[in-house]
Amino acid sequence: MKAEPAAQARLLDLQELDSQLHRLDHRLRSLPEIVEAAELKERADALDAELITAQTRVSDVARHQRKAESDVDQVRTRAERDTKRLESGQITNAKDLQNLQSEIESLGRRQAELEEVVLEVMEQAEALNAEVSRLAEEREAAVAKFTEVTARRDTAAAEIQWDRTRLTQDRQRVAEDIPADLLGLYDKLRAQYDGVAAAPLRYGRCNGCKLALSTVELNEIRATPADEVVRCEDCRRILVRTEESGLGTPAAE
Predict the structure, then answer these.
(1) pLDDT reading at 37 higher than 90
(2) pTM (predicted TM-score)
(3) Where are the residues of the annotated region Disordered (predicted)?
(4) Within the chain, where are the H helices?
């Protein structure tokens, strides 16, 4: 493949722009806010699940408390009714009086037991309500932090995108100075070799693979016409001859 030396030199400008674009893409993918936002989102979702579970338990305990209080009211009402009957003097039969007194005592014990249940349930409800409050506060804090971090992430991403747009425009202008066949080869090699397709030959060394060329290879390149596109024998990238190549005066076409 042949191309004017100036067009080959423009490959180095293009490669520098592509390397900058690659670094910007890496910066964008590696923004610390991305990981932090994901962790905060996961934390907020976990707190949501815990909060729903705690709220469900609060509802269950509240229902249990209402049932226990209702049972206490029923026993108390029945005990009050029996006490009134006992105090009314209407019951004169000794056995009936004894049975009624026994029932009142039994109801008293039952009422005490049920009131203990109510107290236990109220304590459970108090603890669960405190847990709900704690989870709600933690979730609110996590959501607030998530909002803050995503805002910083989006700002940083926008700045990177602005730089990327500018570099992409510069790349388009540089690419216009390179023949289509040479540009096609460059793009093909860039996809094969980790984004680096063209490298300068500097002081007898390929700056793509960083290996020094042998004397035989340097002599072959020295004898190659300036408009001939040469490639590194080791890494197969395009080698661009420069004033720092150490070849002396390029061969004439």
Answers:
(1) yes
(2) 0.69
(3) 63-90
(4) 5-29, 32-88, 94-175, 180-192, 215-223
